[in-house]
Amino acid sequence: MAGSVPQNSESASFESPVRPAWVRWLCGIENSILIVCLFALIFLPLLERVMRGFFNTGIEGEAEFVLHFSLVIGMVGGAIAAREKRLLGILYDCTLPQGAMENSCGCFCKFVGSGCDRRAGICRISIFAG
Q1: The Cα angle at residue 65 between residues 127 and 56, in degrees rounded to 5
Q2: pLDDT the model gives residue 110
Q3: Eight-state DSSP code of residue 15
Q4: Which residue from 59, 79, 94, 127 could staple onto 109, CB 3.0 to 4.6 Å apart?
């Protein structure tokens, strides 16, 4: 088999699975939302600057739009990373030990991760509660 490249299991694990047409369509919408928000995040401040230079007026609330676009980019980017199974672990080193240490280290990592999630949730609640 001249010219054929053998594929190992690591490279095959990052390939996207075969999805039905309606799921691919929804994935395209998700990707489009991310692209539009990135485009707006880049060009809204530039447009603001040009309008202030030529028309002595700007876009009202431009800074808030940029902040909200950043939030949407983070949320949609996280959803796309989860869809493609490319999430990063909080404590990656916990996957390195083997044997008996693997279980105890895994429990510790999950404990620390749940504590971080709990703290973030408390902060969110305190922000919205006033």
Answers
A1: 130
A2: 78
A3: S
A4: 94
Task: State how far the Cα of 118 lies from the Cα of 4, in Å rounded to an integer.
Answer: 50
Percent of the chain with pLDDT over 70: 78
For residue range 70-86, list pLDDT tens digits in order. 888 888 888 888 888 77
Between 50 and 7, the more confident residue is 50
The string of DSSP letters for 43-60 reads: HHHHHHHHHHHHHS---T
Question: pLDDT tens across 52-62, in order?
Answer: 899 988 888 88
Dump strand ranges (E) for 4-66.
none
Across 42-71, b (16+ Cβ under 10 Å) vs e yields eebeeebeeeeeeeeeeeeebeebbeebee
| Closest alpha carbon to 57 in 46, 45, 48 | 48
Nearest to 23 by CA among 111, 67, 108, 84: 84
Residue 15 pLDDT: 58
Question: Rounded to an integer, what distance in angstroms lies between the CA atom of residue 100 and that of residue 29?
Answer: 45
